[in-house]
């Protein structure tokens, strides 16, 4: 029997403490002892209260397609910490004739009433355990901050401060050596300098950044620190200038422990007083200067990038446009590219995706023109998009029916419990325990129904969407032959263009989608680029192939 292993932890801290590794090893031993052939191992670092997890989704798709006949998890709470989600997954596995195995309990018989009851009980307990931990954590944070204590500083206090006292008596006091540097940063910002210029001036003055202190104290290995870790940068300066603690206020925006929503109205805003480093007028003057810098930054007008902010790297970060000037062959050459600045947990691993604008913008604009120019193709694309939306709505409707059936079954079980209680077959305590479990299940299912209703509302297309799209493209068609940069930007926004970048050995592939009409195209970059390579010059470059 072929099987898929699924392991999960909730946070990056758990990922680093071998929890995933121990789960994986235990599941592999279980599969070996039961004669199963493991064809894939999927893992997630996400909360169990979320159903849409990349690893779980991939495992579900493989199981539905028949690639495997069993799913192995360490325990049921690794599969889900939401009772409604857990019930939905069990029903899905039962209909697909997939076996569910847990290392802690063995095989879960999806059609056996006792196994169903045991799994539901474990799922409700997992959800209760998560909610209880969250409530205790939030109450502790609110109580701690209400007494004037600071949260979340870890071993390193905020730059410009140091710790005094131990454990619950620990508080922030001003570190005069670092506070003088903070005041210098604010003074230079108020004088009109940008964050990058301030960072460069601090490096020129020989001022060590905060990370150097961590290296000296042994909390960050020098082998893990790149050269950028040992220099000031604009992002670090910007965070210092924006932090309200330097004007004497540490602000926390915490959710209420008894809140059922994540709305801002349901959150507790607590301000803890800390020693002031800069006066209020200097802090607010720096905020005004930062706002002005954003409006008048040279990067905003240096060059037009057709797909600026619309390309997403495989690492999850958005690509930004960059322009370089390199001198070679006796002349200056301008290079424009899209670049990803994503960084993993370990600073030495930095994403190096960089693609020539010429390789992407030119074929992308040709594709956009082809979409708008041919009305017949446009009508066909709109029809395909509407069909895709209808299929999506049908899938959501099926999920809604499953949750509604779950609520009806819970009501039936509650009625049966009441009848058993009236006939003195179950005690009042047993009635209370089981009724609470079914009420929690109904609440979870009701929340999912609300989410599905919102998704259906977003997926349902307006009745006259085809006429609206055709009218919009007709108004844009005259702009195509001699479109200016602003007109191109307007067209890209109207078609709602988005893209995904994937690395393919020595090249990059960009998949673009016009979400308004559901059209897609794949553009291949001929080479991985580097700003120091003369072949980057746009002079004489040939467009990349695109389909």
Can you offer a commentary on this structure?
The structure is a single chain. The radius of gyration is 29 Å and the shape is globular. The strands form 5 sheets. It has a 5-stranded mixed sheet with strand order 2-1-3-4-5, with helices on both faces. A 4-stranded mixed sheet has the order 10-14-15-16. It is an alpha/beta fold and about 550 residues long. Helices cover about 50% and strands about 20% of the residues. Helix 8 packs across helix 10 and helix 13 runs antiparallel to helix 14.
Mean pLDDT: 77
* Helical residues, percent: 40-55%
Determine the number of helices (DSSP H or I, runs of at least 4 residues): 16
The rounded distance between the terminal residues' Cα atoms is: 41 Å
Give, in spatial order, the strands making up the sheet with the most strands: 2-1-3-4-5
Structural category is alpha/beta
């Amino acid at each position: 029997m072929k099987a898929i292993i699924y392991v999960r932890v909730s946070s990056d801290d758990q990922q680093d403490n071998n929890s995933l590794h121990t789960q994986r090893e235990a599941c592999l031993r279980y599969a070996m002892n039961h004669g199963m052939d493991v064809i894939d191992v999927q893992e997630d670092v996400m909360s169990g209260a979320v159903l849409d997890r990349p690893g779980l989704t991939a495992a579900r798709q493989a199981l539905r397609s028949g690639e495997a006949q069993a799913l192995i998890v360490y325990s049921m709470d690794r599969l889900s910490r939401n009772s409604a989600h857990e019930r939905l997954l069990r029903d899905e596995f039962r209909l697909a004739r997939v076996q569910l195995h847990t290392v802690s309990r063995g095989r879960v018989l999806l059609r056996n009433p006792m196994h169903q009851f045991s799994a539901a009980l474990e799922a409700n307990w997992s959800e209760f355990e998560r909610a209880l931990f969250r409530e205790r954590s939030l109450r502790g944070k609110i109580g701690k901050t209400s007494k004037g204590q600071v949260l979340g500083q870890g071993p390193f206090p905020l730059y410009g401060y140091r710790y005094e006292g131990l454990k619950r008596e620990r508080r922030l006091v001003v570190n005069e050596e670092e506070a003088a540097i903070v005041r210098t940063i604010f003074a230079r910002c108020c004088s009109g300098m940008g964050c990058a210029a301030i960072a460069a001036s601090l490096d020129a003055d020989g001022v060590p950044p905060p990370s150097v202190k961590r290296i000296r104290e042994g909390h960050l290995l020098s082998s893990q620190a790149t050269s950028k870790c040992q220099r000031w940068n604009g992002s670090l300066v910007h965070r210092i200038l924006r932090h309200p603690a330097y004007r004497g206020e540490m602000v926390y925006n915490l959710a209420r422990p008894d809140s059922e929503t994540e709305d801002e109205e349901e959150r507790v805003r607590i301000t803890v007083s800390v020693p002031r480093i800069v006066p209020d007028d200097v802090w607010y003057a720096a905020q005004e200067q930062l706002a002005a810098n954003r409006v008048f930054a040279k990067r905003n007008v240096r060059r037009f990038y057709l797909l600026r902010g619309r390309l997403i790297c495989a690492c999850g970060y958005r690509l930004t446009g960059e322009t370089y000037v390199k001198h070679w062959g006796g002349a200056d050459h301008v290079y424009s590219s899209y670049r990803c600045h994503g960084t993993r947990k370990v600073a030495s691993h930095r994403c190096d995706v960089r693609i020539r604008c010429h390789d992407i913008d030119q074929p992308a604009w040709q594709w956009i023109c082809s979409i708008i120019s041919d009305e017949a193709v446009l009508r066909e694309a709109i029809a395909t998009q509407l069909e895709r939306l209808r299929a999506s709505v049908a899938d959501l409707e099926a999920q809604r029916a499953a949750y509604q059936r779950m609520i009806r079954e819970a009501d039936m079980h509650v009625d049966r419990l009441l009848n058993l209680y009236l006939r003195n077959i179950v005690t009042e305590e047993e009635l209370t325990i089981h009724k609470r479990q079914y009420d929690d299940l109904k609440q979870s299912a009701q929340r999912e129904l609300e989410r599905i209703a919102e998704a259906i509302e977003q997926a349902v297309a307006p009745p006259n969407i085809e006429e609206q799209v055709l009218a919009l493209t007709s108004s844009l068609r005259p702009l195509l032959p001699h479109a200016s940069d602003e007109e191109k930007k307007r067209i890209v926004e109207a078609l709602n263009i988005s893209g995904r970048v994937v690395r393919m050995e020595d090249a990059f592939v960009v998949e673009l989608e016009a979400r308004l009409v559901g059209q897609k195209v794949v553009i291949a970059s001929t080479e991985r680029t580097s700003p120091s390579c003369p072949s980057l010059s746009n002079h004489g470059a040939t467009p990349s192939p695109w389909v």
